[in-house]
Amino acid sequence: MFASRLSSLSLCAIPRGPIASQARVHVRATESLTAWLRPPTLNQWVQGQNDSGTLGNTMPPSADIALSTPLPISSPIDKPSLRRELRRRRRTLSRRQQRDASRRLCQRLKKLPEVRRARRISLYLPVGGEIDPTPLIGWLRRRNVSVYLPVLRPFADNHLWLVEYRPDTPMIKNRFGILEPAPRYSAQRHNRLPAWGLDVMIVPLVGFDAQGNRMGMGGGFYDRTLAFTRRRGPRPWLVGVAHSCQEVTHLPPEPWDISLQAIVSDRRIIRS
Predict the structure, then answer these.
(1) How many angstroms separate the Cα of 225 from the Cα of each of 55, 219, 231, 254, 258?
(2) Residue 171: pLDDT band by 50, 70, 90 thresholds?
(3) pLDDT tier, 27 (very low <50, low <70, confident <90, very high otherwise)
(4) 179 vs 46, 130, 138, 232, 254, CA distance in Å?
(5) For the domain that residue 161 is a member of, what is the CATH number?
(6) Of 19, 76, 98, 187, which alpha carbon lies 20 to 30 A from 169's?
(7) Full-model pTM
(8) How far apart are the first and last CA of the chain?
C-alpha cells in the first residue's frame, strides 16, 4: 500500500512496460577502471538490469526529470518501504536522464569552493541508478587532486577503507557487485588514507530533505567510518549527492547519523 501510494506521487518521469528495462554491462573483475570508465559503457553499467533483462530505457527525447515538489511524507515513516521506493525511482531513470543528471551534478560540485581547494577527495562508483560523480575524476586529475574510493574493510563489520585510485589500480567486484581496488593493493598502507586525512568526501544518498537530513542504504558503512567526526579534530567536508527525485519533505535524523555539510543534487545545493 505504501509503495503504491508513493508511485502516484513520483517526482521522476517514469516509463512503463518493457521499454523501461535496463541492462548491466559486465566488466571483468580484474579490469582496470580506466578500461571501462568511458561513455556509454559507464552509463549502461550504472543503469543496471531489471527483471526482464532487456536493454535500456528508450524514453522519448522530450521526457525529463520532473521538477515537482518533494515527496510528501507522513509520520511515522516506514523507512524500509521509503528506501525501496526511492531506489526504484532512481533505477527507472533513462540513460539520457542519468547522463544529464550526472553532468549537472558535476557542474555544481566544481563550483563549490570546498571542492575547488581540496587536494584529497573521495567519491564512489555508482550502482543501482545512483547519480554518477565519476566524470569529476578527469577534472580532479588535471588539478593534481588525489582521488580515493571506498573499499570494504576486511575483518571489520560495516567499515570502509579509503584507497587511492590511480589509472593502473587493479579493480575487483566486492560482495555487493561494486568495483573497488583489489585487496592486495588496498592492504598496502601507502595506498590508503584515513578518513580524517581527506579534504572532501562525496557520499551517495538514497533520500534527503531540504533541512540537510539524509537517508543512506541502511548498512551504516559511512556512519561507522565517520564516527570520529563527533569528536574534535581534523575531518573531511562531507557532501551527499543524489538525484532530485530522491528528495522528500521530511526525514527525521537518527541518533547515529553523521551530519553532512551539504547536499548536492542535479537541481540544487543545500547547505546544512
Answers:
(1) 37, 11, 13, 16, 10
(2) very high
(3) very low
(4) 12, 14, 18, 33, 29
(5) 3.40.50.10420
(6) 98
(7) 0.73
(8) 33
- Cis status of the peptide bond prior to 76, with omega within 30 of 0: yes
Q: Which residue in the block uniquely carries the three cell numbers 584507497?
A: 163
Cβ atoms of residues 251 and 214 within 8 Å: yes
* Residue 78 to residue 269: CA distance in whole angstroms: 26
SS (H, E, C) the chain: CHHHHHHCCCCCCCCCHHHHCCCCCCCCCCCCHHHCCCCCHHHHHHHCCCCCCCCCCCCCCCCCCCCCCCECCCCCCCHHHHHHHHHHHHHCCCHHHHHHHHHHHHHHHHHCHHHHCCCEEECCCCCCCCCCCCCHHHHHHHCCCEEEEEEECCCCCCCEEEEECCCCCCEEECCCCCEEECHHHHCCHHHECCHHHCCEEEEECCEECCCCCEECCCCCHHHHHCHHHHCCCCCCEEEEEECHHHEECCCCCCCCCCCCCEEEECCCEEEC
CB 202 within 8 A of CB 238: no
Sign of CA dihedral 208, 245, 5, 9: positive
What is the residue range of 109's domain?
2-271
C-alpha cell at 8: 502516484
Domain total in the chain? 1
